[in-house]
Amino acid sequence: MRYPALLLSLFVLACAPDDSNLPGELGGEPEPPPPYDPMPAWADLEAEAWTEINPGWNTLCSRGQPWGFFVRPGDPKKVVVEFQGGGACWNFGTCSVADAIFKDNIDDVRQAVMAGTFSGIYDQNNDDNPIKGWTHVFVPYCTGDIHWGESEMLYEQEGVESFNLHHKGANNSRAMMYWLSQQGIVAPEKIFVTGCSAGSYGSVGWAPYLMQQYPAAKVVQMGDCGAGVITDSFLSDSFPVWEARKMLPEWIPALHPDTVDLSNMALYDLYREIGNHHSDQRVSQYNTIYDSTQVTYFRYMGAGGDGDPRENWRAGMLDSMKRIADSTENFRYFIAEGEDHCILHRDSFYTVSEDGTSLVDWINSMLDDDTVENPSCENCEPALLE
């Protein structure tokens, strides 16, 4: 077993379209195909309130429902770009309606965002919130491909009715990037790009695009519970389905889509190459030591072999953190006790602390470019991390 996890991780690989569809200066002026309704400009949005933006131009959820993203205007110099989590799928069983292990629409998140039911970083009344008053861009997830897909897939199984699925996560994210660069934020000073679970992989996948698009901004990426511990078989079962190769940042030589060897790529490789190429920026991860959801997906991928999958996942996560930290000076990690999955939307976001450092202070240190440590719990076997 190996623990690679490129974007490949819990879920990866998908392909991007031609350059004409890339946002802003990354690929020239994009020309969205018809039908195309112009997205509202920054000036049209209500201040300190959530607005849903529906871009059209072939943005879709997996089963054909419309997709949109949400913006809450705040300080235009400080921007949060958050990618939603929600599982993944890569075969008939994991993608079927009956047994699906991923979110296939944005109805519930629309209600939650508009109703203001999230806590954690959404609490604008908490003075301890590191992003209080920032502009918040929320990217919903409903495509089963960790925000990286660009494929139309027919899933078939003998004796069972087949079905089509739209793995369009990259296309959806690209539409958000287009709005951000063309009609949204022109010159931010700080960008915090993050996401929970599948959104964690979305955050690291799209972080280099934000770093490239806004070279004068301080960009901090934080993956929330997306360690990328996977089985060998997951690589061959999943990445051809999503077709993510062309979405890799071609300006980073080791990740160029025409030459990268995905069969030997791991999440720690992705963090290393992005971090070292954009060495003036920050990349990071938050995980709990026995994350129950990540362990569950590890089992869905066929985790077996010797030992307990829970312990194997834990060892793989710690090994991945060590590999990235040893090779990437601007990478930081925070490993908390317990098995909770994701922290961004929890009240405990404000109380988690390890090694005498609170999660809030750790994030503030990265955003302020101060000295940043790597807090970890007592149960983290320091020998693996030293």
Task: Name a few traits of the molecule.
about 375 residues; Rossmann fold; eight-stranded mixed β-sheet; about 30% helix; about 20% strand
If you had to describe this structure to a student in words, what would you say it looks like?
- This protein is α/β, with parallel strands linked by helices.
- The chain has a single domain (19-385), classed as Rossmann fold, CATH 3.40.50.
- Helices cover 28% and strands 18% of the residues.
- The chain has helices at residues 92-95, 107-115, 169-184, 198-213, 232-242, 267-277, 292-300, 309-327, 359-367, 382-385, and strands at residues 51-53, 69-72, 75-83, 134-139, 151-157, 160-167, 190-196, 218-224, 282-288, 331-336, 353-354, 357-358.
- Strands 1-2-4-3-7-8-9-10 form an eight-stranded mixed beta sheet, sandwiched between helices. Strands 5-6 form a two-stranded antiparallel ribbon.
- Helix 4 links the parallel strand 7 and strand 8.
- It is globular, with a radius of gyration of 19 Å.
